[in-house]
Design goal:
- This protein has 702 residues and is of the alpha/beta class.
- The chain has 5 domains: 82 residues, no CATH class; 87 residues, Beta Barrel (OB fold (Dihydrolipoamide Acetyltransferase, E2P)), CATH 2.40.50.140; 96 residues, no CATH class; 191 residues, P-loop containing nucleotide triphosphate hydrolases (Rossmann fold); 159 residues, Rossmann fold, CATH 3.40.50.
- The chain is built from 24 helices and 21 strands.
- The strands form 4 sheets. Strands 11-12-10-13-14-9-15 form a 7-stranded parallel β-sheet, with helices on both faces. Strands 16-21-20-17-19-18 form a 6-stranded parallel β-sheet, sandwiched between helices. A 5-stranded mixed beta barrel has the order 2-3-4-6-5.
- Strand 2 and strand 3 form a beta hairpin.
- The radius of gyration is 32 Å and the shape is globular.
- The two termini are 25 Å apart.
- The chain binds adenosine-5'-diphosphate and magnesium ion (MG).
- The site of magnesium ion (MG) has 4 residues, from helix 12.
- This is ATP-dependent DNA helicase RecG.
- Belongs to the helicase family. RecG subfamily.
- It catalyses: Couples ATP hydrolysis with the unwinding of duplex DNA by translocating in the 3'-5' direction; ATP + H2O = ADP + phosphate + H(+).
- Keywords: ATP-binding, DNA damage, DNA recombination, DNA repair, DNA-binding, Helicase, Hydrolase, Isomerase, Nucleotide-binding.
Length: 702
């Protein structure tokens, strides 16, 4: 749609003018003809059916009635408040039409005793039916306009409705737009694609989406427009990836040297799983080429991503580069540091930790050693991103739990070197593959889809608060055989104070039920100082305490293999992926582990589904699919920070088959004609250029 007519400012359209034009701009973001065309209806209503007044029911349904206005009056109600009331009659009875806004304008436009058609939501009060702010037109007018069994209902706002820009007005100006422009909607997809996929033309699709002649025609129009929308997004994402591959030179890690090989042969603490080996190979190949690596490593909680990250770092070291690993919390950074130091010691590596609570002297040493190259691996939090932190030659940046960091932070790491380092982002949030591709289309993806051997599946149960005595007994038995327990309370930002109180109340009552000296309890929450958090975490990790009472600060990555029971309080307040993350804290050792979901008795349907899903499966991908269905992609954990696609018509969840199809075709076309220079791709190229000119793809993913 690149022709000039569609760039015409909206107020030039007959029936719009400056006032309505201003409203459309402000309320719906419609500036030009082309924007109006893309105002797709929310739904459709049946305008072929006419009701008699004595058929009306109190159902708040939209009805259409033929009759006439016999009488108009203004009624005062309350102080200075007025409403305009018209009596509307047909052969079977009478009802009221009511206006609260724009009364002067409405009153002037109403015609008494002329056969008219009214349309709107019907309600009843004291036995009298009424329609507030109805659409109304003379029968003669009504008969000449495009009516169909499916009349479009457009997105609107209160201001628009109050200022007289009703759905009927939008319908009218839409008709006007079609009259003025119809012949000019250029095709954007190549002919062969339309034929292969049996898609209707752009022109027909636009006509049928606004004025469908049948439900079949509407379905075809929706399909075509959804495909087109997803197709062009994929085209941009894939192109971006291709350009990156060609243009962005990376450090070619040519050798696999003594660090990697020595570790692999002599110091591996366990046999790698097949999936870990495969993923390491994928990474090695990628980093060995001339292009910069940008890879997403997905693996369920406990699948063993850390060792993969470590061995990837060894490859960087083998090639004479430094490596860093960034984690979202101090606890997690600490834990990575402790775990990786143990491995690094065996190879005599210099590895250090940098977080917000690092002391000035330690910082100074780190900065020095980073710049002179003697520090080989740096682990840390956001603190790594500070400008003062300069590497001599950073070859690899690993980011753990990617969803906690935004796109911006990723690119900040890039800029730490003149040649950007290879980037490996790791996430335990299983994002369904199609969605991952559409959100992170610029990343390559590796998946660890296998757990280390010998893990017993975690047994999950759902218990009501009324079963607490039994749950506590179970916990005592587990502690008696030497296990440790997590008890987690929700922490949801909006009600932080209340959550904190819940946590403290919980802690007190647990302390009473599990008294000293027989039991020792740790507590961990966001308000504690980092040093205190570490100390508590350490006591628990060393087995000095039996129970860890915590908020969701422990959600990410914490690893205490002897902890075998996870109790989640008010589990109904957690989302599915969070529940799954929390559960992943247990089941890390050889013992049978348990997850107990505590909820109140009254649960919403969604909450029930969440509990059932957790009890039914340990498979993160399965859980992610349910999560996606329940909440839509906007709330999916992995996408919270990076946002979701802002789509006009397609729905990433419901239309994931169309998405996959669009992606495949975009890929195929780019493979054959990456610059889109073939004549049959001219229409496509025009749209593509306009899109890239106008929008950075990240605008879709804001
Ligand atoms: P995550 O993928 O959740 O980050 P980790 O890397 O923390 O998982 O690994 C979880 C646990 O599994 C750790 O204790 C780790 O040492 C262990 N582990 C990882 N890979 C293997 C393996 N191939 N065989 C046995 N244990 C493994
Ligand atoms: Mg981890």
């Amino acid at each position: 749609m690149s022709n000039n007519l569609l760039l015409t400012p909206i107020e030039y359209l007959k029936g719009v003018g400056p006032t309505r034009g201003g409203l459309l701009r402000k309320e719906l973001g419609i500036h030009k003809y082309g924007d109006l065309i893309q105002l797709y209806p929310n739904r459709y209503i049946d305008r072929t059916r006419y009701y008699k007044i004595n058929e009306l029911q109190d159902s708040a349904a939209e009805v259409q009635i033929v009759g006439k206005i016999t009488h108009i009056k203004t009624v005062e109600f309350g102080k200075g408040k007025k409403r305009l009331v018209a009596t509307f009659v047909d052969a079977t009875g009478q009802m009221e039409l009511v206006w609260f806004q724009g009364q002067k304008w409405v009153r002037e436009s109403l015609k008494i005793n002329e056969i008219s058609v009214v349309f709107g939501k019907c309600s009843s009060f004291n036995g009298i039916y009424s329609i507030a702010h109805p659409e109304i037109e003379l029968l003669t007018e009504h008969q000449t306009s495009l009516r169909s069994a499916m009349q479009a209902v457009y997105p609107s706002t209160e201001t628009l409705a109050n200022r007289g820009v009703s759905n009927r007005v939008i319908n009218k100006i839409m008709q006007q737009l079609f009259q003025e422009t119809q012949a000019l909607f250029t095709e954007t997809l190549p002919d062969y694609l339309l034929q292969e996929l049996k898609l209707i033309s752009k022109k027909d699709a636009l006509l049928q989406i606004h004025f469908p002649k049948s439900s079949t025609a509407l379905a075809q129009a929706q399909y075509r427009l959804k495909f087109e929308e997803l197709f062009f997004i994929q085209l941009q994402l894939i192109t971006k990836n291709l350009i990156q591959k060609h243009k962005i030179k990376g450090h070619p890690f040519a050798v696999v040297g003594t660090f990697f090989n020595g570790f692999y042969q002599h110091h591996l603490p366990f046999e790698l799983t097949g999936a870990q080996k495969r993923v390491i190979k994928e990474i090695r190949t990628d980093m060995g080429s001339n292009a910069q690596m940008n890879r997403l490593l997905q693996g369920d909680v406990g699948s063993g991503k850390t060792i993969v990250a470590f061995m990837t770092m060894l490859l960087a070291l083998d090639n004479g580069f430094q490596a860093c690993l960034m984690a979202p919390t101090e606890i997690l950074a600490n834990q990575h540091f402790i775990g990786l130091s143990e491995l690094a010691q065996k190879l005599d590596l210099n590895i250090k930790l940098l977080t917000g609570s690092s002391k000035i002297a330690a910082r100074r040493t780190i900065q020095e050693e980073l710049e002179n190259g003697s520090l080989q691996i740096l682990i840390g939090t956001h603190a790594l991103l500070e400008d003062k932190v300069k590497f001599q030659n950073l070859g690899l940046a690993v980011i753990d739990e990617q969803h906690r960091f935004g796109v911006e932070q990723r690119s900040k790491l890039w800029k730490k070197n003149s040649i950007p380092p290879h980037v490996l982002v790791m996430t335990a949030t299983p994002i369904p593959r199609t969605l991952a591709m559409s959100l992170y289309g610029d990343l390559d993806i590796s998946v660890i889809d296998e757990l280390p051997p010998g893990r017993k599946p975690i047994q999950t149960v759902h218990r009501f608060d009324s079963n607490r005595l039994k749950v506590w007994k179970f916990i005592r038995d587990q502690i008696a055989i030497g296990r440790q327990i997590y008890i987690v309370y929700p922490l949801i930002q909006e009600s932080e104070k209340m959550d904190y109180k819940d946590l403290m109340d919980g802690y007190e009552s647990i302390s009473r039920d599990f008294p000293l000296p027989q039991y020792a309890i740790s507590i961990l929450h966001g308000k504690m100082k980092p040093a205190d958090k570490d100390a508590e975490m350490k006591r628990f990790a060393e087995g000095k305490t039996n129970i860890m009472v915590a908020t969701t600060v422990i959600e990410v990555g914490v690893n205490v293999p002897n902890a075998s029971v996870m109790v989640i309080e008010s589990a109904e307040r957690f989302g599915l992926s969070q529940l799954h993350q929390l559960r992943g804290r247990v089941g890390r050792g050889a013992d049978q582990s348990y997850c107990i979901l505590m909820t109140s008795f009254k649960l919403s349907n969604d909450s029930k589904t969440r509990m059932e899903t957790m009890v039914g499966t340990n498979d993160g991908f399965e859980i992610a699919e349910v999560d996606l269905k329940l909440r839509g992609p906007g709330n999916l954990m992995g996408t919270q920070q990076s946002g979701v696609l802002h789509l006009q018509i397609a729905d990433i969840v419901k239309d994931k088959d169309i998405l996959a199809l669009a992606r495949n075709h975009a890929m195929k076309i780019l493979k054959e004609d990456a610059p889109l220079q073939k004549p049959e791709h001219a229409g496509m190229r025009a749209v593509y250029l306009e899109l890239t000119k106008k929008k950075n793809i990240w605008n879709y993913i804001s």
